[in-house]
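Hey,
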Amino acid sequence: MWGAGGPTGAGGGGGGGNGAQQSAAAGLPFAGIPSELAAKVEKLVDREPEHPVDEIEFSQVHDTGGESEPFTLRRFLRPYQRELGASLALVVFGTILDQAGPLLTQQGIDRGISQSNFGVLASIAGIFLAVVLLDMGVSRLQVSYAGRLGETLMYKLRVRVFSHFQRLSLDFYTDEMAGRLMTRMTSDIDSLTQLFPDGLLNLLVQGFTLVVISVILFVMSPTLAAIMIVLVVPVMLAMTLWFRRASDRGYLVVRDRIAEVLADLQESLSGIRIITAHNRRRHNVIHHDNVVGNYMDANLYTARVGALYGPGTEAVGIIGQAMIVLVGGKMVLDGDLSLGELTAFVLYLTAFFAPIQQLVQLYNTYQQGQAAVTKLRDLLATPPSVPEKPGAMTLPPIAGAIELRNVSFGYDPAIPVLAGVDLQIEPGETFALVGPTGAGKSTIAKLVSRFYDPTDGAVLIDGHDVRDVTLVSLRRQLGVVPQEPFLFHGTIRDNVAFARPDANDEEVMAACRAVGVDDLVARLPRGLDSPCHERGASLSSGERQLLALARAFLARPRVLVLDEATSNLDLRSEAKIERALDALLDGRTAIVIAHRLATAMRADRIAVVDRPPGAGTAGIVELGSHDELVARGGQYAHMYATWTRHAAGNGVRSV
């Protein structure tokens, strides 16, 4: 079943004996927490904070996070202005305390050392110590406050991106590589983690520090300050403008390259069985080496840019300090400047160049974050192709009448797949779709399930256009069992009760008995609490399909779509499923997509979907009951004759 919920069990826990040994005895790979570690795990879980997921609002209606404008740093931070202001105030206060050192040094030299006054020198040293201790306290408070704020921002952003993933339609995931999407939730948000909120605040504070120090320098010695501004600052500014342009280009390329790395990694891990079977490991290593090499080249470019800018600005700063010492020393000898003032000026000059170096590092972080924001902005601006209308009505309990009214559709609008399909399915009718591979059978089922919307025409259930009702109310009454069932990492109970997480153990076991999978549950070391790997890797394909059918049984939808649901079953399991389907489909509308005619023959009516000779699009070429279609002697009759000969040749009794 497709539903809004998901299994939450980790597949672990206690139980008698060693968990790995029990799983091995049942013929399963180990999945879960060893019993000898269960007590320690429980203690760790008890200490973990709980997040009230029921407070998270989720809507199928597409928006941009409550804003009409695209996602930007400024708009994302707008709701947290007060918190950011408090953090900024702490940083500014700490910065002011940091700048007290050179002034105190000046007073210590001019009023203490030069005048041989130890009392004044001791007093200034005491004040210096008090300022340092106060600065330590303010810095500790600022780091703690900013850290909590940054984690809150990242939590909100991760939930927002994940919610948008849940809102997007199936075609988005068909067109995008899973690894590239993983990049949005991993490296892109990790780049922002380094930026929020410490990086942004320090970016502002370092700029503020430059302004404050510049004012102090002009107050202390306009002549020396003018030399610095005229000779040093223009060179720094020119280098910074160059670095900004070069780093902008570099970090955007880095974000693209890391997405390619993760996409290639995800695809290789998902297809490791096929890679091994076809002896492609060496080829994949070479390919991944090239992908990672491109990522390394992109990082080397940004590193070269930084290597030119960082040491270059440092050299300019040192040259500027040497000039100030030369000119300032002459002014001290001439009596125009005191030794303490020159010392303070040089210290402030060092403090003036230090923020510039800090800004270089912060700007690198900012550029990485800005590149990530660009990627996230593009993602969050992507609307679902199957949107829920604002103010959509709730679909009332349905009888199950389905109508396709002059429906045309193409996955690519320029290449139509279906054209002008008209079809009516009565409530409680079992309706089979047969035909060659690629004819459009699954496409019709996807349109009924509203995984896609028709380009022309309408799909109606009980007279309601599926585009006018909420997706939750539609999917609650409509179940889908795909050809390749998907099981989540969790327990057997979690997967069977996926669409009804509130179902009790008796209801779950009843669904398992209905499809004949109760014997599998009985063999497992912990019954319904037995873990299964992600995608059900610890089970056979037939067992996964049986559990998917049990999931549909438990959900009990009004309309059920079976997309080759028995294709992975052996003959014994198929016979068991056929008997279970009779009970499940009684009184319910069912659309059955089948290559095995033994399944289609049990339907009330059968539609043959194919492309007529000379036609570029598919449609329904034959429609009727099994006996009617056989008597007609058309395409279905030919398929049935071929299947009968094949079944007889394999010793299978036809139905």
